[in-house]
Amino acid sequence: xxxLMWILVSAMLVNNFVFFYFLGLCPFMGVSQRxxxxxxxxxxxxxxxxxxxxxxxxxxxxxxxxxPYLRLISFIVVIASxxxxxxxxxxxxxxxxxxxxxxxxxxxxxNCAILGLAIFQTLRDxxxxxxxxxAVGAGLGFTLALVLMASIRMELDLADVPSxxxxxxxxxxxxxxxxxxxxxxxxxxx
Amino acid sequence: MKATTPREDxxxxxxxxxxxxxxxxxxxxxxxxxxxxxxxxxxxxxxFFVLFCSSVIISTMRNLIPHQxxxxxxxxxxxxxxxxxxxxxxxxxxxxxxALGPYVPLIVCNCMILGxxxxxxxxxxxxxxxxxxxGTGIGFLIxxxxxxxxxxxxxxxxxxxxxLFGPSFEPWxxxxxxxxxxxxxxVILLVIAWWGERRTSGATPSPWPEGVGPERxxxxxxxxxxxxxxxxxxxxxxxxxxxx
Lengths: 190, 244
Known about the structure:
Shape of chain B: globular
Structural class of chain B: mainly alpha
Largest sheet of chain B: 2 strands, antiparallel
Order of helices and strands of chain A: HHHHHHHHH
Number of strands of chain A: 0
Number of helices of chain A: 9
Oligomer: heterodimer
Order of helices and strands of chain B: HHHHHHHEEHHH
Shape of chain A: globular
Radius of gyration of chain A: 17 Å
Strand order of the largest sheet of chain B: 1-2
Largest interface: A-B, 40 and 40 residues
Number of strands of chain B: 2
Distance between the termini of chain B: 33 Å
Structural class of chain A: mainly alpha
Largest sheet of chain A: none
Number of domains of chain A: 1
């Protein structure tokens, strides 16, 4: 159990996907304007990550040992289909949630955090339960990063900054400081 | 789409519409592997290869790909070339391949590559697509090498593994760690924005309120009284007089 908690906490805080691995920067820059959308996007990503981790584990266990060169292509196809299926299921089961998520659902397909999750899981030879904990940790970490950034950016909108700094440059500098703060978690697991 | 000359197709991606520094595409690899110049070079060349080959193939097959499934088709073609690049790197430079780790397969998710296919290669002839891919690829190389040079110079005091500053230099460890990536790209974007603002400051209204700031208007002198092409300080400011 300690091992599983370590995987979860490490994926969430110490090796945060956004601040340590630079994965999923596009949604991180794109949808971190408002708190509500950031939270919803994070949750949708967490959900897709969970299903991707399960599918990737099945691929790794039963298909890829016989065709290792197909790894990347099969991961991509699986992620695209999973997102498509999730989209259809949500549309059928809860039209309200579907409308809330809007464009963010299809965008998850091109989020490199999802493919990164599948690749890390393969490189580290995670077993089934480990994969699930890793996916939950990564998803929570991504949500945390988005929500933190959104709350900072909402305050930044009110701040009086020089016109040159406005926009992406400032967001990157703030992300750098946040990344510095997250590095502090490394001592927690020593 | 606006008609362009072959030269424009080639040059546009290098600086004017630089994929990384202007369009903010493909940031993940640029930030993640740019801690040394050698890694940046390997990543830049691999991305260039994938972009060029997939642009040529997709442009060749642009009339065969059904519109509804074009994105999936593009991704499959890109993934094929990324697999080729991954295995080639592993065979040729195993050390750097290990250092790049999962970021080589992650070239698939580089939105710069998919963006060029969607915006250019899927609608234009092969030759033009090859030129466009070359320009964009060079732009990406410039950006990632710039990042790699700054981070390696400050973070380990060397370039391409050659020590430059001697033993008394204390390396800024932070620059080769993840936060250094964010800070470096932030500062680079800041410099570019500042430069752009300086160049166009005459054409756009000054951000300062009337009567304060660097462009203070002398009381009693209306702008119309000055000769065209002459600034208030007596020097030639032709680009400034345009906007007034």
